[in-house]
Amino acid sequence: MTTIxxxxxxxxxxxxxxxxxxxxxxxxxxxxxxxxxxEGALRQELDRHKHRDLPIQIxxxxxxxxxxxxPSHAFRRKKDSSLHVAARLxxxxxxxxxxxxxxxxxxxxxARFVIGTLSSVDRxxxxxxxPNMKEKVSVILDVGANVDSKPEHLExxxxxxxxxxxxxxxxxxxxxxxLSIGEEETKGNELTREAANRLKHTSLNxxxxxxxxxxxxxxxxxxxxxGFIGNIALKLSEGLAEHLGGMLKKSIKSSLTSQLGYALxxxxxxxxxxRTDYSEYGGAxxxxxxxxxxxxxxxxxxxxxxxxxxxxxxxxxxxxNEKIEQELSSAAAIAARG
Amino acid sequence: MTTIxxxxxxxxxxxxxxxxxxxxxxxxxxxxxxxxxxEGALRQELDRHKHRDLPIQIxxxxxxxxxxxxPSHAFRRKKDSSLHVAARLxxxxxxxxxxxxxxxxxxxxxARFVIGTLSSVDRxxxxxxxPNMKEKVSVILDVGANVDSKPEHLExxxxxxxxxxxxxxxxxxxxxxxLSIGEEETKGNELTREAANRLKHTSLNxxxxxxxxxxxxxxxxxxxxxGFIGNIALKLSEGLAEHLGGMLKKSIKSSLTSQLGYALxxxxxxxxxxRTDYSEYGGAxxxxxxxxxxxxxxxxxxxxxxxxxxxxxxxxxxxxNEKIEQELSSAAAIAARG
Lengths: 338, 338
Fold this sequence. Notes:
Two copies of one chain form a homodimer.
Chain A: E1 2-7, H1 16-28, E2 31-37, H2 39-46, E3 56-60, H3 71-77, H4 82-91, E4 97-100, H5 104-115, E5 125-131, E6 137-141, H6 151-169, E7 175-179, H7 190-200, E8 205-210, E9 222-224, H8 227-253, H9 256-264, H10 266-275, E10 284-287, E11 292-295, H11 302-317, H12 320-337
Parallel strand pairs in A: 1-2, 1-4, 2-3, 4-11, 6-9, 7-8, 7-9
Antiparallel strand pairs in A: 5-6, 5-10, 10-11
Helix pairs in contact in A: 1-11, 3-5, 4-5, 6-7, 6-12
């Protein structure tokens, strides 16, 4: 049984969504959950459900990190926050993984400095999972704002992304590509050209560059980029999806016939919403931290929390961190031998 | 009357769409058009329309740049291509502007090296126009793959973007922002932090950083970024719009009721398509070239070509290049005085 520390005060709908998610997870998965946060509030939420036989335990924390706290403030000044306490449980070995739908920057900083980084990893990377045109999923990393990355960082992202993809989706040799501005090797900026050159000499199934247009095509499983680009790509995608949805709604509202049509095709729109629903994908792992860390979307509902817990447990099970250390240290050994 | 050299062999639907676009433009705008390309084919296309009284003239060119030609091949080896000849007409002063829906990289290279760059501009920048949530348009530049830009390049992009926006949409002080990974000044990478510092000290209406999510909100008119980011942002947006459209179609096709609903709301979908139709926006200007250059989408239809010609004429009229030279040289003078 895997023990997961859940920051129960993190998301927009905390602690209700977190507690419900924990209950769903404890009922359906082989996990034990440490629910971290304000004891009274958590007890009250728990008591809304049948939970006596479930392996859920409350761990008290007196502070809460908000969306307005800077990462450094959250790390330095809120040491009894639910986030900090959850990270310490992982650091101490009381839990194998941590899940939080809180302030992304704060979770990254606290995870990195409280739990620590794997010895062969320079910078932990945040991996975003999204549905592609082949009705499968692709993963892009880093979306967590590791700016001004060096080629060796992109290589580490590629290795971590590949191991993550294999662990969760069971593809033995996922295809790995660099996000760039043209498919040809000569295209790109200084960073991607050097990174491509490094990636060609790894044992990864590296297929070269892909363009922004091809990100959703599903011709590759793992897409690697600097965190500045990745963060813009992620947020731009969210913003554009919302924008297009809004425009379509306006067009539909413009006539009665259209509204009737919409009512009839409502099932299609629900189906569409489900296809694009992030909550199925279980949050974004922060890869490279010495203990599995999953960051959920701020708007996480109970289902999203449950899926984040599921992904955390799967990553523990498949010993992702051991594999990352092995791969990266053997790659470093090869590089040192030159 | 403004004279425009039109590369009539450039786009996916050339020369038919180009010739039709030229005719639409010549009928409705105060322009004279030099239709550049294979004389026989162009004559034949022209003869499908009433064109005797229209100010359209064919200029023969024996070669065609294809989508597979590298920019340097197009520039060095195809000197009698319709693209090259059109650029030379601008360079010689026989035309004030050039329009092409051909190979973007080739158009940029040929325009830059045949027509030349404005004396105060280091790198011409490609500006993409898109509809925002406020039902207005925003412009982002550079999307033309000026990689590894320096802060001073981003400053030049900002000045050119502002002048362009004012010329076409008549806003006196368009708001200018930097695309970055957080709104705070401390967020971003080395490039954007330095560029923000420079932009604060210009006379531009600079409002700071915006995130990828806010690109479509319409809170700013001009968005500035390195060409690697901009190119990925543009292509990712195209790819995602296609992807979401495809998923919605699949969902609609999944039941008969949905299909009936779709049929009833078809007008809404047409309206939506019109709202997002790039062909209304008339192509992307390559700002900073010594002669107006407009690059159309490869898939340009006649309407898109006509609108590209319209934008070219408007930019000539409002003396955009003179204004860019003035602004940038006075900015340089201020910087030199320190």
